[in-house]
Amino acid sequence: MQTIQSDNYPIFFENSIDELIAFIERGKYSRFFVLTDEHTSVHCLPKLTDKLNTLGNYDLIEINAGEESKNIDFCIGVWKMLIDFEADRKSLLVNLGGGVITDMGGFTASTYKRGIDFVHMPTTLLSQVDASVGGKTGIDVDGIKNIIGTFTQPKAVFIDTAFLDTLPPRQILSGLAEMLKHGLILDAAYWNELKQSDLTKPSTALVHRSVVLKNKVVMEDPTEKNIRKSLNFGHTIGHAIETWALNDKPDSLTHGEAIAIGMICESYLAHKKTGLKAEELEEITATFNRLYPRFGFSRDIYEELYSIMLKDKKNMDGKVNCTLLSAIGKFNIDNICTKEELFEAFDYYLAG
Amino acid sequence: MQTIQSDNYPIFFENSIDELIAFIERGKYSRFFVLTDEHTSVHCLPKLTDKLNTLGNYDLIEINAGEESKNIDFCIGVWKMLIDFEADRKSLLVNLGGGVITDMGGFTASTYKRGIDFVHMPTTLLSQVDASVGGKTGIDVDGIKNIIGTFTQPKAVFIDTAFLDTLPPRQILSGLAEMLKHGLILDAAYWNELKQSDLTKPSTALVHRSVVLKNKVVMEDPTEKNIRKSLNFGHTIGHAIETWALNDKPDSLTHGEAIAIGMICESYLAHKKTGLKAEELEEITATFNRLYPRFGFSRDIYEELYSIMLKDKKNMDGKVNCTLLSAIGKFNIDNICTKEELFEAFDYYLAG
Ligand SMILES: NC(=O)c1ccc[n+]([C@@H]2O[C@H](COP(=O)([O-])OP(=O)(O)OC[C@H]3O[C@@H](n4cnc5c(N)ncnc54)[C@H](O)[C@@H]3O)[C@@H](O)[C@H]2O)c1
Ligand SMILES: NC(=O)c1ccc[n+]([C@@H]2O[C@H](COP(=O)([O-])OP(=O)(O)OC[C@H]3O[C@@H](n4cnc5c(N)ncnc54)[C@H](O)[C@@H]3O)[C@@H](O)[C@H]2O)c1
Ligand SMILES: [Zn+2]
Ligand SMILES: [Zn+2]
User: Among all ligands shown, which has an atom nearest to the Cα of B233?
Assistant: First the structure.
């Protein structure tokens, strides 16, 4: 599988562990740090340890697993460890984990001493096809996802789908939602291929194809002025549901499960507003309902979801902005949706 | 006084309040926020209020005065206020204050929703000639100055030396140290002119000249790979003394007072190592001793100062790196100084 060239950095798909080791050696870093969570230090780190040890001069930083770690307190904890370890400007941070580790490791590194180098070795499907590509770093504050962060590119990304072997099925499904999204917004053929594939463990070829799609979009529009907004499909509503679930009952929804719901709701809006055909809406709804568990919420939370949406960074001037589809494989950005439309879309999901 | 063009942003010196108002109007911001501290909201804000009120749609955020506010807790406080005010990506932050406000306001804005626009209206001499120019933002963690931050340029800087009328004399002296530094590293004629001027209230022309000098350096080397390091003259030792004083007895030293000490010490090192003449060392020492109060510290803290220096971002690989002078008006970067040399330099200051 070919290395993908992103905005001044490579995304490796073959011999990724060796590529990482070679990268660190070439970089002449004064030292490096490996950031893991309690799961990736058990399931992923051992696959690297022997080779890392040949390099010497590194330290491990481990945080708790899960979205609850992606906040300023853990971030301060990592900063303080870097201070204690006397990490200088020529240090490197290696983020070994899912999107929580790559997002918050990226933010921590991009602000430590006004920015040290970092690389990602993403170990969840979601982080491989999405979080590790595109230069968005971030943490949550007050339960608002990614409200604080920077746009900073990693120096390289090392993808090894063998890490997915230990990933729980629910986490596979979480990443899969983004892959399906890439098909829906950009590539109908890819969407069709995905629907027919064995999705319990997506092949490296499918992962590669998603990264090519996402990378193309972020390269054209790094700071999300226009076409990058295509990636927000499913996310205006999905993020709100995810945020609500995070506050109400942590771990009840993964990111992908939330945006699968978001994509059903926003496909409904697309059908209403931007010309998505009824058959396409049905096909999308049926596919997500086949793959993803149903999530129950009641009408009582509609207002709360709406007020969460208003706080979302994608939305301005007190208006809710959605990326919709005009057909499978074709997106349509900057659609203002009214409260009534959004509530109708929730109804559509709940009725399904 | 001519507007200075920096890295994609203007630095105004005339009609600065009107220029700010015009800038906000042109920018079509969804809303804006003015960040002040308890002193600038009394001494500076009233000079703007009438004009700001013609614009509408803004809120004030006030923090405590002083370096103790330049930390992550206050930063979180500002983020949360922006969240509560539902600041979106098209919001603007106006930093009205000294270097504490411009540094931490810049950091807060550069990370809120991955970056919103900000402008500086610096109200101390130090922030006018130094902190507001060059795109460094930052906060202190664990008493280590500016350890966390970003390189992000403001959209504009509005300098009005009339704000200096209410500034305590000690704060004037603090900024003056940076102006004297600009002369020492880059412009012997400017140094001589400064020595002969009335320094109780530096003229707009002198302030302008300092900004031209600093701006030239940061434009050539925005991320401090080489010539920007010239600005570190006096700061390797000065920062250590400032950090020590901050931990030990807050408010006992201003930034400028600390780096004035640093410049005496580092001029001594320059005489020892990089060819600064004995007469020049004497001239520098006498000038600072005439203008600045002596600061007493004992040999007992030398080791502590040294270990603070090792944690400084300017230093790598466990070595202390100083920018020195080869003559008045000529700098020399990347001089490794040993512990013994540094201790000798402290001795030189204390003996003076
Ligand atoms: N930056 C971006 O552009 C972007 C894009 C999408 C999502 N995200 C962010 O990514 C985060 C979600 O990412 P995620 O789903 O990877 O979450 P995660 O990092 O929390 O990983 C999910 C779980 O899998 C565990 N895990 C990771 N790798 C494993 C492995 N190989 N074997 C066994 N267990 C493993 C983790 O410990 C965790 O418990 C969210 O915070 C989201 O906001 C960011
Ligand atoms: N970013 C950079 O490149 C850079 C460069 C130099 C210094 N700095 C930072 O700047 C900070 C020091 O700046 P500072 O000396 O301006 O500190 P400051 O912001 O704390 O201001 C000093 C004092 O003056 C008060 N004040 C401000 N304007 C006033 C006015 N017009 N009238 C009366 N009182 C007023 C403030 O409330 C404060 O009490 C340090 O944190 C330093 O690290 C940054
Ligand atoms: Zn997503
Ligand atoms: Zn300084």
Answer: 4
Calculate what percentage of chain B has a pLDDT beyond 90: 88
- The fold of the A223-351 domain, in CATH, is Dehydroquinate synthase-like, alpha domain (1.20.1090)
Q: How far is the CA of B50 from the centre of ligand 2 (A)?
A: 25
Sheet holding A58-63, edge to edge: A4-5, A10-12, A157-158, A117-122, A91-97, A31-37, A58-63
Nearest listed ligand to the Cα of residue B260: 4
On whether the B4-166 domain is CATH 3.40.50.1970, my answer is yes
> From the CB of residue B275, how many other CB atoms can be counted at a distance below 10 Å?
14
Beta bridge partners of B31: B91
Q: Which residue puts its alpha carbon closest to atom 21 of ligand 2?
A: B98
Contact B130, B233 (CB under 8 A): no
Q: Give ranges for CATH 1.20.1090.10 in chain A.
A: 223-351
pTM value surpassing 0.90: yes
Q: Do A114 and B311 touch (CB under 8 A)?
A: no
- For the CA of A166, the closest atom of ligand 1 is 32
pLDDT tens per residue across span A168-219: 999 999 999 999 999 999 999 999 999 999 888 899 999 999 999 999 999 9
- Is the separation of the CB atoms in B74 and B140 below 8 Å? no
**Residue range(s) occupied by CATH 3.40.50.1970 in chain B:** 4-166
- Give the span between the Cα atoms of A167 and A161, in whole angstroms: 10
Q: Does B142 touch chain A (CB under 8 A)?
A: yes
Range 214-243 of A in CB contact (< 8 A) with B: none
B257-316 pLDDT tens trace: 999 999 999 999 999 999 999 999 999 999 999 999 999 899 999 999 999 998 887 777
Continuous segment of H or E residues that includes residue A105: helix A99-111
CB neighbourhood size of B298 (10 A): 8
